[in-house]
Amino acid sequence: MTDLLGEEPGGEVRDVRLADALADRYLSYALSTIVSRSLPDVRDGLKPVHRRLLYAMRQLRLRPDQGFKKAARVVGDVIGQYHPHGDQAVYDALVRLAQDFAQRYPLVEGQGNFGNIDGDNPAAMRYTEARLTDVAMALLEGLDEDAVDFRATYDGEGQEPVVLPGGFPNLLANGAHGIAVGMATNIPPHNAGEVLDAARHLIAEPDAAIADLVAHMPGPDLPTGGVLVESRDTLVEAYAAGRGSLRLRARWHTETFKGGTYQVVVTEMPYQVAKARVVEKIADLIANRKLPAVNDIRDESADTVRVVLEPRSRNVDAQVLMESVFKQTEMETRLGLNMNVLDKDTTPRVMDLKEVLSAFLDHQHTVLVRRTRHRLAEIARRIEVLDGYLAAYLNLDEVIRIIRENDQPRPELMQRFELTEVQADAILNMRLRALRKLEEQKIRDERAQLETEQADLQTLMDSSEARWTRIDGKLGEMRARFGPDTELGRRRSEVADPPEPVEVPTEAVVSREPITVLLSAKGWVRALKGHSGDTSDVKVKEGDRHRFAVHAHTTDKLLILTNDGRVYTLGADRLPGGRGYGEPLNLLLDLPDAANIVTMLVYQGGRKLLLACDDGRGFVTGEDGLVAQKKGGKQVVDPAEGARVVLCRPVPADADHLALASTQRKLLVFPLSEVPERNKGRGPLLMRPGKGALADASAFNAANGLTWTTSSGRTRTVTELDAWLGRRGQTGRQVPSGFPRSNNFG
């Protein structure tokens, strides 16, 4: 190392802990990101890149009444003189200032392709042109009048404004978005006329509450319109905290046709939502049958937004249709409010609405004072010059003689007529053609006008009340230029009360189609379309057979009970289709052995079910308590050693008796009230099966009689049941004639 660098290597080597070095450098990076890149200034509402863009365009004389210049020229000037960053990043910032769907009050007027609401990219900067808008000129007004401080540019060769005079309330009117290190800002656009009304109210009532300010500024006013569905209390709370979340929806209406048919037309999209992406999302939902209330979607947009939603049926309520769309797409979004900005001391902090407006007004007061002082200085200099002109006019011949005969006429003029250096220089710099303009009366008239203006400005400087009155008048003029009476300033977003809750049926969100669920003896499951009555022609694997066939819908849940007392829940939407042999059930559930399945039924909710084991024990339980959230199921019945669960039967709402049949062909009937209701367990003895086992059970209404299906398939009902009527836990008596040999009620 010594050989390479010599005896005295250049540079300085210091021993620093890596953690300390990283902390210092990361802190510097974080501060640079916060102050110089991501957060806007509360006074003019601009980030440095936006401020530099506007200032560079002003220097290029790209006024609204002048011609356009290539955007590449603007970007080149910005990165060459003021903002040493990538040209694409600067161009993206320029494009955003020109997009009327991104900026409520565009600061740049673009010519060419600057992107669109569908999310398409703008053309390259070599193809587009730009110039300033009237709003931007309002922000820049006063730069030549010492209204704000200037600082050296990054290379020290020029000057740039620290902040713009900002007579337009840009922070709230256009909003701001930025992500810094450890903090972010998100301020939605508002209506400038309403912001100015709130600011003027704060001038009149400095102690005004935020609720009073919200009365003048009721909520965001987005470039793309939409409907803000939040209560006034929520808005006041958000503005008071400086943080909040507001719900924004697309604006829509219906168009009715003959025969009662209609279509829904969306005319305004939520802020910063790409229309094409939403249309594509809805089309995918329709194709996947997750939005069954909608039959088709068409984008008929031209200069304005027009997205048409065609309902599947004229019986579908339009409000229900749109609620289902709002729930699943960005037709409804959350509008974040986080008023984290840099204050006048470049300190980042979250401000409430009153603090933001107060900072804007204080800045306007500072600008007014500085511009007034600048104008007073200009008047003083002009009066000094006019006094010199007046002295020259009264002694014109002598002035000419001194100038002609002296090599250094200025000291002679100053001594002869008691002039200042400024006055002497003004006389010496005067062109000969101007001599004819030196008329005494004109000089005196101009001087009198300046003295009157000087007196007015001095009165303004001496009176705080007069200054605030002047600021109020300026804000009134700004409102007349950009307020609600102008095309640009009319309110676009509607502020509405939260909508009444609309019950969206499952069918409107998820496609509900009939299916037949088949489960084979070896545990292969599948779903056939429709409610098939005869499944005998449906093929199964060799050596297998159909065991359960259940009619359900694609939105249903299936309850599967095994003989060890566990209940498994399976969503019908997870079932494989009817092609092939299906899939093994143990791939969908942690089911140990399909041969142990006792029954499979469709969950309906709210029903009562009778669970019983072959040893005659059982109980009634609520169906809702059987739903399992895990693949491993839920232990509901705890059979005695050697016993197995054999049945799960729905209990009709009007049932008042229970009939039990055993494999010994015994029948026992007793009041249903004797059967306890439990969430889980083993249950008491319902029937003593003797050497046999419990075979089946049926809950019924005694007035209607006990019904079963005979071996021939006919239905038989018995109303005289006194012979079999007993109490819980008995063996029962021989089944009546004609009872099925299977000992099942059917």
UniProtKB/TrEMBL annotation:
Enzyme class: isomerase
Database matches in SMART domains: TOP4c
Coarse class of the protein's main subcellular location: membrane
Residue ranges annotated for the Topo IIA-type catalytic domain, each copy included: 39-504
UniProt-annotated site: Transition state stabilizer, residues: 126
Cellular localization per UniProt: Cell membrane
Pfam families: DNA_topoisoIV
Record-given protein name: DNA topoisomerase 4 subunit A
Protein's organism: Limimonas halophila
